[in-house]
């Protein structure tokens, strides 16, 4: 059973930064990729970023949603079983609950929710003016 626990959310002023963490407990299962999605009130869950999990950080593949490219960076530390989302130049429209997801299955559809079998409980990020 894979378990994901997010942390690091909070309140920040526009232009500020936050780093989210997602601790992945997978037992003997091998994670293929980890992602971040977000959901604002009244809106659908939106893809933020994804990263493949095997190999070194240098060889991993990363993907970003258009609205966060150049501002957010996804990374991982396999030794700590933790994925990160570094968020910079935050805007009020980044306000949402952020969820991390994980999949054990190789897929080309890392920007789709249905690619992920496991989800964390979410962490709230609020960006004020």
Describe the structure.
It is a single chain. It is built from no helices and eleven strands. It has strands spanning 3-7, 10-13, 18-25, 33-39, 46-52, 62-64, 72-77, 82-87, 96-103, 118-119, 123-128. Strand 7 (72-77) and strand 8 form a beta hairpin. The protein is mostly beta strands. The mean pLDDT is 94.
Concise overview:
Helices cover 0% and strands 48% of the residues. The protein has strands at 3-7, 10-13, 18-25, 33-39, 46-52, 62-64, 72-77, 82-87, 96-103, 118-119, 123-128.
Q: What features would you highlight for this structure?
A:
single chain; 129 residues; mainly beta; 7-stranded mixed β-sheet; 4-stranded antiparallel β-sheet; 11 strands
Beta-strand content:
over 45%
Question: Over all CA atoms, what is the radius of gyration?
Answer: 14 Å
Unreliable segments of 5+ consecutive residues: none
The N- to C-terminal Cα distance equals 41 Å
* Average pLDDT reading: 94
Number of helical elements: 0
DSSP summary, beta strand count: 11
Outline the fold blueprint.
Elements: E1 3-7, E2 10-13, E3 18-25, E4 33-39, E5 46-52, E6 62-64, E7 72-77, E8 82-87, E9 96-103, E10 118-119, E11 123-128
Parallel strand pairs: 2-11
Antiparallel strand pairs: 1-3, 3-8, 4-5, 4-9, 5-6, 7-8, 9-10, 9-11
């Amino acid at each position: 059973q894979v378990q994901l626990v997010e942390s690091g959310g909070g309140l920040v002023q526009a232009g500020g930064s936050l780093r989210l963490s997602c601790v992945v407990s997978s037992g003997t299962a091998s994670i293929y990729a980890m992602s971040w999605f977000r959901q604002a009130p009244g809106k659908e869950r939106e893809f933020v970023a994804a990263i493949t999990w095997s190999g070194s950080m240098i060889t991993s593949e990363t993907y970003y949603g258009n609205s966060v490219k150049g501002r957010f960076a996804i990374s991982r530390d396999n030794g700590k079983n933790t994925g990160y989302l570094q968020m910079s130049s935050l805007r009020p429209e980044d306000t949402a609950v952020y969820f991390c997801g994980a999949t054990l299955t190789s897929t080309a559809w890392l920007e789709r929710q249905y690619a992920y079998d496991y989800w964390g409980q979410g962490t709230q990020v609020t960006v004020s003016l």
